[in-house]
Amino acid sequence: MKSPDEKDYVQSLERGLSVILAFSDRRPRLTLGELSELTGLSRPTVRRLVLTLERLGYVRTEGRQYVLTPHVLALGNAYLSSLNLTEVAQPYMEDVTKVTGHTCSLAALDGEDAVFLTRVPSRRVMRHTLTTGTRLPAFATSMGRVLLAWLPGHEIEEFLHHAPFPRITARTVTDPDRLREILREVRTQGWALVDQEFEEGVRSFSAPVLDSGGRAIASLSMSVPAGELSVADIEAETLPVIVEAAREISKQLGAPDRG
């Protein structure tokens, strides 16, 4: 006879999670046979689990192989946004807003979008009110480009081949090859600056928040009126504040020193 704990234990959930966890940076693409071997589950069981995960949007097929989708990030973001990350970031974001006089935001990547996790508003009147959960296209925003730039190479290529790149303003970069170059530049310099590509009259800039594995789990960002701060002023005065705050938050999360 099973104990009360055993009766409440949902084995199918355990098996589904074991399939998700079988994927890694070394094993981004797996066949049914490989998943069966890694999880210790039978091929018919793995097939049912994978089909369920595919229907839910966590897995997709590439020929005979399966790969995780960015939707899996939502599982981790539920924890990050509700506990450790936002708690650690909050005091640094408050300092940024005090020093600069502009709203400071924290966002994470979910699929093709950057999603706001939390914001520390300034007293300035903003044209648009962006709240927790607001989604913006990653390709056309500084917060999104920072997060994309820190993805593994194959995930960046996947994004560039499948994501839509509509022209939002006259300045929006929509060419995948140019976006690839921009993401490389962002990764090299350690920050992103977008000049009126998402919204006319608005410049935004961001820096990555890294975890203990050096992965960008969030971006720290700010938007300012283009008529108030030039690109040169941003790079000289305001951007360094964001970069330093993101670096300090990353240190608190155990990230390796970027120098």
Automatic annotation (TrEMBL):
Keywords: DNA-binding, Transcription, Transcription regulation. SUPFAM superfamilies: GAF domain-like, Winged helix' DNA-binding domain. Residues 71-255 form the IclR-ED domain. Signal peptide: none annotated. Residues 10-70 form the HTH iclR-type domain. Coiled coil: none annotated. InterPro entries: GAF-like_dom_sf, HTH_CRP, HTH_MetabolicPath_Reg, PcaR_PcaU, Tscrpt_reg_IclR_C, Tscrpt_reg_IclR_N, WH-like_DNA-bd_sf, WH_DNA-bd_sf. PROSITE patterns: HTH_ICLR, ICLR_ED. PANTHER family: HELIX-TURN-HELIX TRANSCRIPTIONAL REGULATOR, ICLR FAMILY, TRANSCRIPTIONAL REGULATOR. This is Winged helix-turn-helix transcriptional regulator. It comes from Prauserella endophytica.
